[in-house]
Fold this sequence. Notes:
Pfam families: TY-Chap1, TY-Chap3. This is YbjN domain-containing protein. This protein has about 350 residues and is of the alpha+beta class. It contains eight helices and twelve strands. A six-stranded mixed beta sheet has the order 4-3-2-1-5-6. β7 (about 230) and β8 form a beta hairpin. The chain is elongated.
Amino acid sequence: MTADSAGGESNEGILLDEPTTADLRAKVTEAWREFAAALATLVPTLMPGSHVDVTLDPTASGTGLAVYSVSIRILPDGEVEALAVGNAGLPEGYRMDRSAVADLVALGWSPPGVLPGSGDSFGLRSSQDQSTQLATVVSRTLRDVYGAPHPAFLVYLVHDEDDEPIDTAPLATARHEPSIDGDLDIGDLDDDGALSAALGAAAETVPLDERVRTVVATMSKTTVDQLQVDTDGDIGIRAGSAMVFVRVRDNPPLVDVFSPILTEVEPTEQLYVKLSELTNRMPIGRLYCAQDTVWASIPVFGRNFQATHLMLAVQVMTGLADELDDRLHGEFGGKRFFGEGDKPTPAKQPAAEDHRTGMYL
């Protein structure tokens, strides 16, 4: 896993010629800035022996047993030691390539074993009065090297030398690890608290499909019984001229948020190149062509299901699907889901200016 798939700074933006998606990219960038600022504020307040552990939740990345994490430990006299997972701590198939290792070294990490006591991890020494620089390195490591698409897909734990949890201010939109099995804190995504009240502490006792329907109903400001569910059990959400579906799979537990962007489109080399280019620029998810249909998909893992992950996936997908079907239809023809009168090779349509629902946060 490297930064190339994460939609970080190394990718110069997603669909930058569209104001709405430029705004989406700005929101993601700002979320990372807020996370770094919160971490920089936290580190100087901690006593010697305290730890801050930040991990990319496998729910976000589909990495299974691979745990991409950074641990910060406060030493005496204001010194700080940070450790970042190395390839020895990652299962085969999820290890970093030479480019990712080089990126870690360029950020200031020493290779495993160089820093005394670092073992198989990359190591870094800093100080509490240099917390801003340290927070920047940690943020870029999680985002650009480990591939975290957004701080909301991070979990963190702050604890003392006896492993007792320490209450601290939130690290922006990252999720406090002890709250995983407790009341759901979804911040700005749930302004009226409706979802927190609906799910409460019953996280693991309610079947996954019921939890998913509760989340989608809350986002749609409707009831579970009023959701649009087809014969396959897929929940349908209209997004302008596009349709987004939410499907729950059992083995492995997975929630697939997907959209048929275009149908009856001719697969060409130019189309495949375009889809690859757009996928590399997207903050999360992928685009692909199967037979004569262009699909967009964002998977959300069902193990340790978190409502915030599904909400972000749905909001990203509804915004991008409504935009991309217009853009790709204008360039490659085909039919949009709600594109009445679409023809195989129409003239390019102007960008729609109607309200978009896909900007997350």
